[in-house]
Structure formats: C-alpha cells, structure tokens
Amino acid sequence: MNPAAKALLVFIGFLLGLSFLFAPAPRAVDLNEVRFAHTSSSLLYFKNIRSFYYDIQPDERSGFILNRLKRRDLDSTRPSLQFTIVNNWRMDESYIYAELNTAGEQWAAPAVYFTRATKDTLFSLNRLDNEAHYHFAAEVYNQLLRNQPLYLVNGQDTIKELYAEKRTNFNAAMVLEDYFKLVNKL
User: Fold this and answer.
1) Taking a C-beta distance cutoff of 8 angstroms, is the pair 144, 176 a contact?
2) Is-contact 36 130, C-beta < 8 A?
3) Distance of CA 173 to the CA centre of its chain
4) Where in the sequence is the domain holding 72, given as residue range(s)?
C-alpha cells in the first residue's frame, strides 16, 4: 500500500478515535421554557433517520401522527410506562405523551415518584395536558441521566421501579432524547 494512503488512513482513524473519546455528554432538559414547535430540519432528521425505530400510526380522529417505539414492552400483564411522540403536522408541533399500558388502567391514582438528593417528588399521571406531559417527560429524562430511580405508585402502594432493566431504561431514554432533539431542546 502507498505510504501516503497509509498515513491518510491512520489520520482518519485518529480523528475518529478523538471524536469518540471527546463526544459531548448528554445535557439535562431546561424546564423553564416549554416548546412544542419543531424546525423543518429537525423534523426531516427525525423522519429520515430516527423514524426507522418507530411504529408510525396516523390517528384519523385527531389527524395526528403517533410514533411509538417498535421495541417497546408490549407485555400487557406487567405495568409499564411508555412514551409516544405525537406529530401535529398542521401546527408544525410535536408533543410527548406518557402512556400506561393496559395493566395500569384499573388504578384510580397512578403517579410516578421521583427520588432526588434534594427533594423527592410525586407526579400524578391523571388528566395531564400537553404542557404537563412535557414537564413529566423532561423530569423522567433528567432522572434517567442522573441514574436515579423512579417508582410507579398508586395512592400509597408502590407498584414497581420504572426503567430498572437496562433495555427499558435505554428505550425510554432513546424516545425522550429523540423528542427533545425534535423540538430543539437538546
């Protein structure tokens, strides 16, 4: 092989190694400003690159497009909390929705308990609007970044620790990161 070609390959390998070594760390989501609008470039990125990982379901009643992770937990016998990215193409907005699976439909007061070093928080899942879903998703994402546990509770009963398994943790973080990139918060 030509010495110049070898040097070029070594240089490219060195640059790739540096890019992996100094990759930016994930940032926490700022909760002060709620933003649902997305740019055409972020939507194009999501549709062309990230949508491969999602089941895309148009909702005929609302006209929205629902994006649910393909590899989400479909077991309806165990309670789980999944996130759905909802695209409102008429308004150039996207929303994030937290959905309990059918195992949690019978609970009267489902909530998520966040443990923190400074203050623990209980976040009710009843009657959330778009803004509340956004705040909840941002709290979950920030909690996942800090590797702190979240618990699904019903009244005074703790049902289970959410995202305790590596796969479910990765899936939740992936959907939330995709959403916050879509609305230009990351």
Assistant:
1) yes
2) yes
3) 5
4) 32-182
Chain CA centroid to CA 105, Å: 22
Domain membership flag for residue 166 = yes
Number of domains in the chain: 1
> What is the per-residue pLDDT for 185?
87
Q: Looking at per-residue confidence, does 80 or 84 come out higher?
A: 84
Average of per-residue pLDDT across 48-75: 93
Instruction: Tell which residue, 169, 168, 148, 162, has the closest CA to residue 79.
Output: 162
Whether 149 is covered by a domain: the verdict is yes
Is 17 a member of any domain? no
Rounded to 10 degrees, what is the CA torsion of 155, 104, 139, 132?
-90
* Tens digits of residue pLDDT in 123-149: 999 889 999 999 999 999 999 999 999
Quick check: is 167 in a domain? yes
26 confidence band (pLDDT: 50, 70, 90): low
Residue 24, pLDDT score: 66
Torsion, CA 54, CA 72, CA 184, CA 124, rounded to 10: 140
